[in-house]
Write a structure and sequence with these properties.
Largest sheet: 10 strands, mixed
Radius of gyration: 22 Å
Structural class: alpha/beta
Helix content: 25-40%
Number of helices: 12
Bound molecules: guanosine-5'-diphosphate, magnesium ion
Number of strands: 20
Oligomer: single chain
Strand content: 15-25%
Distance between the termini: 19 Å
Length: about 425
C-alpha cells in the first residue's frame, strides 16, 4: 500500500500528527519536497517534537525514513535536528534514515539571499520563512546547486565550489552590495556539516522500488498544503515546491511507483502564515479568540497565524488538487468553545456566487466570504474516541463539511496527542 498524507489548506493542518499516528501501519515514511520551512508537530509518549526536515516516522521504531530527491536540505539544520532527537533518546542511523543522493543542499548563501530579498522588498515582502527555500529551488532549476550525492565524491565536488561562489557573488556582492562569500568557508561548511552524512546518502528510488516489490507499505509525507503549491496555490504567495500528492513518487526519487490513496489533512477551521489573499479571514477580537484557542503560532517562525472559519471553496479546490480519497479532519476540539460556528460556504465575486470554482489568485482580492452559521456543541470533546460519543452538533458539523466537500471524512482529530482521534467505520 502506498499512501500520501497531504495538506488540503494553507499548511499546518496537522500532517505531522497524522503521519505519526498512521505510520504504525507503514514500513517506510518518505518526505518528498520542501525543506526546513516545514514545522510538523508530533506529540506522543516520547514527548513533543517539532520536525523540520526529518520525516515524522522517525519517532516509530522499525520505520525507515526517507528524505527524497524533491527536498532541499540544510545540512547544518539537519545535523542539529538529528542531535536534538538523539538527545531525547531517539535512535537515528543509516538503517532508519535514507537521504536521496539527488536532494539539493540549501546553502548558507541561500538563506542570506532570502533575508536580503525580504529586506529589499520592505513593506512588499512575501513573508518568507527566511530558510533559503526560494533561492535554493531557483539554483536547482538554474542547475547551479550542490546535491547530497556529491558529498560521496568530495574531491570532485570541491572543484566546483570556486565557480559557484564566483557566480553567486554576482548576486550577493554586486546586486545586493553585501560582503562577498568565500570559497574556503563553503569548503569548511561541507566538511563540518556534510561529510558525516555520507553513509546515509543513497539512491532512494532504488531503495523504494525494491521495498515496493517486497510489498512494503510506504507513506509519503507532504509539507505545506495545496494552496501553497508552486503551481496550484496562490502564486506568488506560495512555497517553491510541489506540495501535491501526484508529485510524491517523483519527489521521493521513484517516479515509477503508483499511489493507492491520498489522505487529505483538513483543518476544522482555517489558518494561514504569511502574506497573500485569504478570503475568509477573521480580524480583531474574533481572530484573537480563535488564534488563542487553537494555539495558532507558527511552529517554525512563532508568528501569529492568520485565522478564519472553515472555507469550503478553498478546501474543495485543495481536495481536487490533492486527489484526496479520504480526509482527516483536525483540531475539531478547538471549536468546542463556540455556541454557533461560522462556515464559509461560498465566495461573492461581483454578481456571482462561487461555490465550485476557486478563483485565479488576483481575483481573490475581490472575493467576499459568504458565511453560514451552524449550531456548535459547546462542550469538551477532547476525550471522545468514537463517533457515537461525539455530541450530535459535532457529528452534524462533520457531516455538513463532508457534504460541502464531497469527500469522506475518515479520521477526526480532537487533540494533539497521538491517541486523541476518532476513526469512522
Ligand atoms: P503540520 O505542519 O501540518 O504538521 O501542522 P503543525 O504541527 O504546524 O500545526 C498543527 C498544530 O496543531 C500542532 O501544534 C499540533 O500539535 C496541533 N494539533 C494537531 N492536531 C490537533 C488536534 O486535533 N487538536 C488540537 N487541539 N491540536 C492539534
Ligand atoms: Mg507546520
Amino acid at each position: 500500500m502506498k499512501t500520501t498524507i497531504v495538506g488540503i489548506n494553507w499548511g499546518d493542518e496537522g500532517k505531522g500528527r497524522m503521519v505519526d499516528l498512521l505510520s504504525e501501519k507503514y514500513d517506510i515514511v518518505c518526505r518528498y519536497q520542501g525543506g526546513n520551512n516545514a514545522g510538523h508537530t508530533v506529540v506522543n509518549h516520547k514527548g513533543k517534537f517539532i520536525l523540520n526536515l526529518l520525516p515524522s516516522g522517525i519517532l516509530r521504531e522499525g520505520v525507515v525514513n526517507v528524505m527524497g530527491s524533491g527536498m532541499v536540505i540544510d545540512i547544518q539544520h539537519l545535523t542539529e535536528e538529528i542531535q536534538r532527537l538523539k538527545d531525547a533518546g531517539i535512535a537515528i542511523a543509516p538503517e532508519n534514515l535514507k537521504i536521496s543522493d539527488r536532494a539539493v543542499i540549501t546553502m548558507p548563501y541561500n538563506i542570506l539571499q532570502d533575508c536580503l530579498e525580504e529586506e529589499r522588498l520592505a513593506d512588499k515582502k512575501f513573508g518568507s520563512t527566511k530558510k533559503g527555500i526560494a533561492p535554493v529551488y531557483a539554483d536547482k532549476y538554474l542547475k547551479k546547486s550542490f546535491r547530497m550525492g556529491e558529498l560521496k565524491n568530495f574531491a570532485t565536488m570541491k572543484k566546483r565550489i570556486a565557480d559557484i561562489v564566483a557566480w553567486k557573488n554576482l548576486t550577493i556582492e554586486k546586486a545586493y552590495a553585501n560582503k562577498a562569500i568565500q570559497t574556503a568557508d563553503i569548503v569548511a561548511y561541507f566538511e563540518k556539516y556534510g561529510l558525516h552524512f555520507v553513509d546515509y546518502i543513497c539512491d532512494t528510488g532504488l531503495y523504494l522500488t525494491e521495498a515496493s516489490k517486497q510489498n512494503k507499505n510506504i507513506l509519503f509525507e507532504a509539507q505545506l498544503g495545496a494552496l501553497r503549491d508552486i503551481d496550484f496555490g496562490i502564486y506568488p504567495y506560495t512555497s517553491s515546491s510541489s506540495t501535491i500528492s501526484a508529485y510524491a513518487p517523483i519527489g521521493a526519487g521513484a517516479p515509477n511507483l503508483k499511489i493507492d490513496n491520498s489522505i487529505g489533512i483538513m483543518k476544522a477551521y482555517s489558518t494561514c502564515v504569511g502574506e497573500g489573499p485569504f478570503v475568509a479571514e477573521y480580524h480583531g477580537d474574533k481572530a484573537e479568540e480563535l488564534r488563542i484557542a487553537g494555539g495558532e503560532y507558527g511552529a517554525v517562525t512563532k508568528r501569529p497565524r492568520r485565522v478564519g472559519p472553515f472555507d469550503a471553496v478553498a478546501s474543495k479546490y485543495g481536495i481536487r488538487c490533492q486527489g484526496a480519497t479520504e480526509i482527516a479532519l483536525t483540531k475539531l476540539d478547538v471549536l468546542s468553545r463556540y455556541k454557533e460556528i461560522e462556515i464559509c460556504i461560498a465566495y461573492a465575486y461581483k454578481e456571482q456566487e462561487l461555490t465550485k470554482k476557486f478563483p485565479f489568485t488576483d481575483l481573490l482580492e475581490d472575493c467576499k466570504p459568504i458565511y453560514r452559521k451552524v449550531k456548535g456543541w459547546n462542550c469538551d470533546i477532547s476525550k471522545c474516541r468514537t463517533w457515537e460519543s461525539l455530541p450530535k452538533e459535532a457529528q452534524d458539523y462533520i457531516l455538513y463539511l463532508e457534504r460541502l466537500c464531497d469527500c469522506k471524512i475518515k479520521y477526526i482529530s480532537v487533540g494533539a496527542e497521538r491517541e486523541a482521534y476518532i476513526e469512522r467505520k
